[in-house]
Amino acid sequence: FNSYISESEDDAMKTKAQNEIAGAEMVNGMEERKDLFVENAGKNVNSKSSEYSPIAVGSQIMYFTSIKSDEVVEVSKSGEAHLARAYSSAKQGDGWSEPVELNQNINRPGFHVGNISASQDGQTLYFTRQKLEGNNLSESKLFVSNKDQGEWGPANELNGVNGDYISKQPAVGELYGGEVIFFVSNRPGGFGGYDIYYATNKGEGVFGEPVNLGNTINTSSDDETPYYVDGKLYFSTEGHPGLGGYDIFSSEWNGSSWSAPENMGKGFNSSLDDLYFTIDEKGANGFLTS
Fold this sequence. Notes:
The two termini are 27 Å apart. β8 (136-148) and β9 form a beta hairpin. By secondary structure, the protein is mainly beta. It is built from two helices and 21 strands. It has helices spanning 2-7, 11-28, and strands at residues 51-57, 61-66, 85-92, 95-96, 100-101, 112-118, 124-133, 136-148, 151-152, 156-157, 167-175, 178-185, 195-203, 206-207, 211-212, 223-229, 232-237, 247-252, 262-263, 276-279, 286-289.
């Protein structure tokens, strides 16, 4: 890496090489966390397909996404059997109940559905609807649905957030005393690739102009999967020094700015890509997807 840095004229690639050096130096003195216990969510939730982007509402309900297909899933094929669907599962003793597919107001035919986030009272659901061309994400927009007599009502696009670009991975949070939605987008004006933004909830499904979180958080690489709780933002990126691939970082909000992102260390992060992290509202349980 040092040899590359001394000879390269590509500033972006030199920055990546410097990050690799910083990550390798950081890992040498990093100890495995002793207070972290990783436990499989069990056979009711997990299957031979991939289950991903889990979110806890309180300590009793978990939402997640999966392509639960009995067939081999080929990205060149289409059809409902090859679409990602959103599910819910309830806490049941030491495990989780058999998942229930959300209704067609959420799981609309013809679209992949995922990246669910919920309001603190569990009555509002934010999520993405996406389309693929081959293995490439060609369309992704944010939607919101409210509960009506125990069922999820019609979903509407988030006004002021979607456009002719990719918007994905919504996460409910709070800034300046009001509710906001953090989300990821490749909209013009960012620092490169996907950046994390927030938009203020003005009520009635209307959101303010999206605001980039700035270059303390965002990098020239892809910055993704935001999750906010108790004044702290968790997200994943390759753009800050890490253990390899995407690592999970945290940053604290002091009321006016974000702290320098902190790598969450071994146990959360590895030499593989580590993308999703959420915790329940009591702070008692975490959900991690690598």
